[in-house]
Sequence to fold (431 residues):
Amino acid sequence: MNRLLEAELIYGRLLTIREPHLIARYNKALKGFGLPETKLAEFDIDITGFSPQVATEFGDPDYLDPQKVNRRFIILTPEQNDLPVVHTSFSNTAGLMHEFFAANARAIHAITLKDALYGEIEDSVAEVKTLEDLLSINEVKFRVLSAEDLLGKAGELRQLCDQLLTSQDAWRGDTMLNRMVELSRQTGDIRQNTLVPDKVIFRHDAFWADHFSGVFVFTDDKQATVICDPEAPGFRRSRPWQVSYISIKDRAQIFDFLARTGRIELPRASWVEASGLLAHRAEMVLLSVAAAQLPLPDLSRVDVVWQQTFQHTHGRAIAEHGVYPFLQEAMRMLARSGTLSLADFDPRLRHWLVRAQPGHADQWLTNRLIAHLTPEDFVSRFVFDKQGFYRDYQSYPSPYGDYVVSRLTQTYLQDKAQFRRRLYGIGDDHA
Fold:
């Protein structure tokens, strides 16, 4: 994993915290969670305040996610809104954090001048034991505290101000007036500075959860669809009148669901040729077959000539894998007619021919599901399903791992927004 760290493919784009007053506030937040203080003089954080260095120091990667639900957060600066999430059990953690920052921007900016915000993204369950626990989460609430108790002091000052305005004799009490002066020195003028976040409840709709080997939950009106391992506790038993269940192993049924609900863009020459997505996936498949060969073929220069040579020398392995000839036939048919009759193609392989419908609210989640079902495409896996990519990466032969790092660094990391726009039709977004 050191190669990923050096290339900033893991824990990249984080914010370095080294200012003593910020570290002190971070430690007060940790203490508020009942955790020990960090002794580090410098560490990096993501949008939630998670630090890989602190996780290593504590020997606990889940120190801000102890039950993989009710995620904790620490906000030291508004700049965190521009950071990714690098450790999470729910795919919508980043989205919820961005919503919280956007809805409470003034309060966060004012508070973090003097204090740090911390707390939990609370939902209706304390621990996920069955699918029912996941399905019961309809909304979340940000329970917000402050390290220096600035929120509490602002609330007390607000209460004293109200008392001063409503009680005829309140202004005569020196003790109360002195307390108001003392509090205002710390909080500033609360009539001008919004110090209390006023929107803390947000919807929790479609998502992926890192439970039971991965669970995808999609919602359509009042109907939910759960896609996961059929061995997950509660599969087909939790709310059968309200929830449809699809086995993650049933690729044909998954494809039918995504197509029926308009979540995928079916193959047409207009977008396939402009994006180069199928050609990209074909190359990814060849590389995956190459990674399984002993000895590993030379990957120092992977180009059209390399692909042709590899096809000639490893035709049997490519045919046995099956996906490459499938993609080649699809691209030939698209070039001839502009469209495909999917009925002519193996339903178990159709995910290789599509991408999430651009502009659909679930495009990131849908692309994550497609990437999960097409793991040989390590680029798409990295873009949409980093947890899955990191697991796969640990099984790569060392020279292949070197190539993967080089490929991602020289392509995706050069201009991520443009890369996503071209291959997947996705506009600028937090990622």
User: Anything to note?
Assistant: The two ends are 21 Å apart (CA to CA). The first strand starts at residue 15 and ends at 17. The longest helix spans residues 150-166. The chain has a mean pLDDT of 90.
